[in-house]
Amino acid sequence: MTTRAGFVALIGEPNAGKSTLLNRMVGAKVSIVTHKVQTTRARIRGVALEGEAQIVFVDTPGLFRPRRRLDRAMVAAAWSGAADADVVVLMVEAHRGVTEGVERILETLPEVATGRTVALAINKIDRVEAPVLLGLSRDLNERFEFAQTFMISAERGHGVDVMRRWLAGQLPEGPWLYPEDQIADLPMRMIAAEMTREKLTLRLHQEIPYQLTVETEAWEERKDGSARVDQIVYVSRDGHKGIVLGNKGETIKAVSKAAREELEEFMGRRIHLFLQVKVRENWLDEAERYSEMGLNFKDGN
Ligand SMILES: Nc1nc2c(ncn2[C@@H]2O[C@H](COP(=O)(O)OP(=O)(O)OP(=O)(O)O)[C@@H](O)[C@H]2O)c(=O)[nH]1
């Protein structure tokens, strides 16, 4: 049987119900992640399996409330994420309709829409009467040519299965993007990597060119409830290694401590974080790494 795999970007205003929908589509594991995060930081939110298709959901972090410099960089990344996706789904709240925020997204939508499928999901249909719903659907479809419109209640599960099947069918044929045994903790690994990368960025600021990336190599649950997390900080040149390590390793220690603390707070349990700095020349050329990170280099920091 032919396998399919690809990326689906969920966009929408905060509170639209993205997390709820993801949990429905992906399964319980992800909820641990998403409910504690305010500004979602990981690009990959979850992976759903539908028949022979692997649907990788990517997120649009902080799209509407870019506060700090880093957030703004992430907004750029978010849009590029949507642009990289095979399918973009705009989520709108049925009872709120076309808000200012939705208007703003609609304005930018044509930019990301070229060459990919854009669908509409009207969520929280349990909160409105049918005529309102139909009116909203018509209104939105007049403003943008959506490939498909779904009327769903992410919370109650209405329409979610249909939507997932449809999404699966939109994805290109090809091998799965992630091994099955990594799917469950993939978002967690990404978030942890993102936290470390943020701490590095804050700490190094101008010092280092935008040429580092962080990957979570291993995530090991321990019997005492803690977890051991091994990450590698990749730099592109030998000279950068020293900068990341700092004098007597003080920079990497401080980064490690800050990242660990944030991760512990986020997870609500003890974490043992181990960072290693490695040089990987030409990592930018490694297309595989690129997609693994889910970030464009220029947007990544
Ligand atoms: N009535 C109703 N409430 C819903 C539905 N789906 C989600 N909600 C509620 O809407 C609120 C926001 O849902 P989230 O899934 O956290 O929204 P989000 O888009 O992920 O929000 P951000 O993480 O801030 O971007 C929660 O209180 C949900 O319980 C639905 O179908 N019906």
> How many helices in DSSP terms?
10
CATH class of the largest domain: Alpha Beta
CATH topology of the largest domain: Rossmann fold
Give the integer mean of the pLDDT values. 80
Name the helix and strand elements from N-terminus to C-terminus, one letter apiece.
EHHEEHEHEHEHHEEHHEH
Q: How many domains make up the 3D coordinates?
A: 2
Read across the widest sheet, the strand sequence of neighbours is 2-3-1-4-5-6
Uncertain segments of ≥5 residues (pLDDT<50)? 28-42, 62-75, 287-301
* Backbone structural class: alpha/beta
Major beta sheet, specifics? 6 strands, mixed
* Total DSSP E strands: 9
The Rg value, from CA coordinates, equals 20 Å
Q: If classified by CATH, what would the architecture of the largest domain be?
A: 3-Layer(aba) Sandwich
- Spatial separation of the terminal alpha carbons: 40 Å
Helix content: 40-55%
CATH superfamily of the largest domain: P-loop containing nucleotide triphosphate hydrolases
| Bound ligand species | guanosine-5'-triphosphate
Portion in beta strands: 15-25%
Rough outline: elongated
Could you characterize the architecture of this molecule?
Residues 4-173 form the Era-type G domain. An essential GTPase that binds both GDP and GTP, with rapid nucleotide exchange. Plays a role in 16S rRNA processing and 30S ribosomal subunit biogenesis and possibly also in cell cycle regulation and energy metabolism. Belongs to the TRAFAC class TrmE-Era-EngA-EngB-Septin-like GTPase superfamily. Era GTPase family. Residues 12-19 are annotated as: G1. It is a peripheral membrane protein. The structure is a single chain. With 301 residues, the chain is an alpha/beta fold. The protein folds into two domains: 4-170, Rossmann fold, CATH 3.40.50; 185-299, K homology (KH) domain (GMP Synthetase, Chain A, domain 3), CATH 3.30.300. It has ten helices and nine strands. It has a six-stranded mixed beta sheet with strand order 2-3-1-4-5-6, sandwiched between helices. Strands 7-8-9 form a three-stranded mixed beta sheet. Strand 2 (44-50) and strand 3 (53-58) form a beta hairpin. Helix 1 (18-26) packs antiparallel against helix 2 and helix 7 (186-204) crosses helix 9. The longest helix is centred in the middle third of the chain and has 19 residues, at 186-204. The model is unreliable at 28-42, 62-75 and 287-301 (pLDDT under 50). Bound molecules: guanosine-5'-triphosphate. Guanosine-5'-triphosphate binds next to helix 1.
